[in-house]
User: Fold this.
Amino acid sequence: MKSRNSPPAGKVVLLVILLLLGLTFVGCTGIRSSPEGGSGGTVADSTLFLSPTLTSAGGFGCTSPNVNGKLVALSAENGTRFWEFTMEGSTSGGGFGCASAAAPAAVYGSPAVAGELVYVGGYSGKVYGVNIASGASRWVYPREGKLEPIIGGVIVAQDRLYFSSADGVVYALDAATGDLQWEFATGGKIWATPAVSGDRLYIGSFDKKVYALSASDGTEQWQYQAEGAIVSTPLVYNDTVYIGSFDRNLYALDAASGDLKWKFPAGNWFWTKALAYNGTIYAGCFDGRVYALGAEDGQELAAVDLESPVYSWPVLVDSRVIFATEEGTIYAIDTATSQATLLADIEETVYAPLCASDGAIYVYSHQQNLYALNAASGANLWSLTIK
Assistant:
């Protein structure tokens, strides 16, 4: 059994360290710092939208890898591919005497769907609006140049597209045209996906603050100072913002004022977005546990040990909260008893958010395999490799 106080395992550690240092690559040291990963899926009208990441290694040879991300549209029923859209990669100068290397269009946040468009943002610093029927590009932002890497996902609300970037800025675009509506700068990098509730947008930053902004014009409503950097995406539930931090606390903040209601300390980082059901908050942690906490007072109701760090966003299916661990084990937690049942073990690394629709769970692994599992039994409905 793993120590709950040890740092997060595997490639997550390397990714975190390299991005914290602000590196794009390490040149001839043989250490790969080009991100690897993939987004979670988003289902709309029986179509699954997913952004796999296509990478090729540089390593000791200091080659210039061709790195591109794709947005693909698949049948949610059987995985048939309808279309794919290739996102733009960019090239940057090399370092340490090496040749230039490609900046990847890796995607870590899930796509968003609204109307006739699906939206996705990439590590290459661009956001795309793509026609859901044809896969044709409707618009790209920015039109010229690029932003700093986009780590979080995009969301659509009030006819606007919201996202954040590693430049520490929150952006709001016209969802139909991609035109900039407003932007707001924080004091640190942002990796998280924003959350919008009513006319407020909530976001956490590496400057250790949680911000509430006007969703209409981006003016600051309040800010809360935490004790560590925040990469978790906020959950807004019953007028409260729940958000985890690298300081090992899960915070509950009044959504209107930003006042602290309570905070809960765990054995390691909170990275994944929490999930709420029937007055209980379920939060996965890098200490390998899922904590069930009272939404009002933060009282620990249960701590379910999954024995592997939890990085992926959970989903709720038929009053069961379903989590994936970094090691690829998929558990269903009964919300009535807090008992965990092993649904499946894909034996592959899982960082991407889970997705659920019509009794199926979709899991995209770090090994670029997509699994459609029966949410009740865990049986493999279909699977395929997406590169």
Q: What stands out?
A: Residues 1-9, 21-37, 54-67, 90-104 have pLDDT under 50 and may be disordered. Residues 135 and 231 are 30 Å apart (CA to CA). DSSP finds one helix and 35 strands in the chain.
